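QA checklist item 7 of 12: single-chain prediction sanity check.
[x] sequence parsed
[x] length recorded as 819
[x] structure emitted
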Amino acid sequence: MTRDAALAASPRVRIETPSLSGSISLKGARIDDLSLLKYRETVDPNSPPIVLLAPSGSPHPFYAEFGWSAPSGASVKLPDSDTLWQQQGSGTLSVGRPVTLVYDNGEGLQFHRTIAVDDKCLFTLKDEVINKGASPVTLYPFALISRHGTPQTHGLYILHEGLIGVFGEKGLQEETYANIEKQKAISFTATNVWLGITDQYWAATLLPDTKTQVQAKFSTGTIGNNIKTYQSDYLGPAQTIAPGAAVTADGRLFAGAKEVSVVDGYDQQLALNKFDRLIDWGAFYFVYKPMFLVIDFFFRLVHNYGIAILLFTVLAQLFFFPLANKTYVAVAKSRTVRPLGMNEHVNPILRGLYIVILILVQGSLLKVLFVTVEMRQAPFLGWIDDLSVPDPTNVFDLFGLIPFDPRTVPVLGSFLHLGIWPAIMCVTIWALIKLNRAPADPTQKVIFNWMPIIVGYGVGGFAAGLVIFRACHSSLSLLHQSLMIHRYGAKVQLLDALKSTLPKPTLSRSLADFLRTLQARGGRALMNVPISIRSLRWIRRASRIAFWVSAVFLLIVGMSGLEAVVLAVTAVLALVIYLIALRLGQTFASREFAAALASATPEGNRPIILFLRSFGIARSSLGARFIVELGYIVRYGITIGFAALVGDTVGFVDRRYEVEENLDNAIGLNAMFVAIGDRLASYGAAKITVKEEDWQKTFYLLTNASQLIFMMPGPSASLLWELSQIVQSRSLLEKTVFIMPRGGKFALVRTWQMVSDMAAELGVNLPPYVSEGCYFRLGEDGHTSETFALEPFTRALGKFVRSPSYTGVIDLAEVLKLA
């Protein structure tokens, strides 16, 4: 039957207070009809109030019942759920006006129940039994809260919904509906107890006398048409009523919204046992609750929780200032060094501490927004009328101007929702990314370019209050970092980044530049690259784009559903195609160079750039590379997750840098980038294999024919011999750039130290190892003369060989000017 029909099935006593409206059923004397007047179903103030309790027979029964129980085997007629009580006098139950219900069992026992209610949500009951019979009677007072049917829950780890209680020294006990169904019943015997059933914002709990030991229980069962029931109840100690005597039992019922001030007030006023845990503050109670109290303090000043969150953000930023400042100062100092200088990087311990604290704060804010009823339907400014739910606007329907829901579009609908505040946050994340140097690795470039969108979509589904905090925090971080960069004399490049993002001025200008480039190159360089190598490079580029676009959208849509399966398969196939094209391109380039080497002019039509490296430092394989590339999805997923939580990207750039592969990407179409060795040893340069007795002759041939030599010193005897030949020849030394590989692992540090010791015996002093790696050059005295950061120099070299002025001769001085 309907709720109204169920209410009309029995006579009732009205309940009217400033906070509550409802009634008590005289049939069973149940408190089973209660609405919360201060809380509405929607943000519309004219919408119906929240219904908390409902009578048996209605669609969702939820009620409290108090009474007496006889010992097992005793035949005492006691009031039950079908007993019809009488009201003494008349009137409504309201603040300061209790009501009394009476029942006579006709066998010498009279029952009186006085019910009072305060101005919030606490009912106080006093049950009295008078024995007018000739024999003593023993009874046990009891109380229960029962719910019929399994309610819809959020099913989230951060929120408990179900049966709850604190049982003396056993402390807080929480059981979900699913858990209690498995265990059927859980019993507790304790003093200083409270127990009940809780929802996200509302609860009904029993508060027995704190000094009385009770037998409490959580249980489940079924009634009617296999409808599940859930119950929290307690049984008090036995009371024997002598003839002509009377006994009383006190009971209390909390039924209402879990307002922090109200719950805390009852906890202190009634000396309850951790009643404030009725609100699910979780394991980090000592963080979550103080955070709410701070925000609530600001709310009492400004009377708006949204503005209170902004003030809290400023306070949090001040709290983070010492840690954040050290991070930003390190980044700012690195920007003041000349472009090819060594970077000063963020202390990982400080950065890690900053991230942990910031994640804890933002997780705490999310918890506060989700579990506190004060945040429910709390407005901000403009269109935000509920800070606890996502931003309701959508840029894809022009904020409601287009009369349809883009989310209903097949396939693409899940991508077509982005609110205004998430969009604002995207802009702040983009600005933070552009404020820092772009990563040289193409993979990282793709991810960091897409990161603002991914973060916007990922966080857009969270509570608007959290997104506002994130946007404000990111803006303050942007301001802080910009001031640090400016303070240390570097240029804040946001405007330049914005200009580079916009389209080029005209098509005719770009076409003219392209034609001039082709004219300057004439018949050399790119025009002389075999079509097979050019095609494979285009395939590599296309498959790389397909891989990361699929991976990016996979991170947006999540890891479930048909869309996720299609994107995952696309990403894997694109990766396989990329690696095959990479290996085939290397093979074809090796054949091209072998043919040129066998001709009368080894340099062929393109200049030769030689790469000498240690097999002990640079090794790779197709299978290992496949695993590494797939692992990037997970790694960058975690990176994006942290960036989404933290709100800025400093320190999230992956430090991995494959020198050989990046050099090949920069110069491979404009020079013959070659190395001596096994083609399976590494990716990038074309490999030629020579016999042991011929390698020194080949070394001389290639070094003399090369425009530029890159050398990664290693501990092998052959590489040390090659190093000795280079440092003894002024002509070779002038065109050699040495490489310190990036890493920082202990094994690599130890290897570099061993190489340095060996090189010292040749009169060569290699620079001390730094985890960021670098390019460096040696003077004729064997000491380091210059050092260059890896990424800027590689980019500069690529720009030089692609420029119209490039004629096949590499001038290091000109390369450095482009860096």
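[x] summary fact logged: Residues 337-344, 504-527 have pLDDT under 50 and may be disordered.
[ ] second reviewer sign-off
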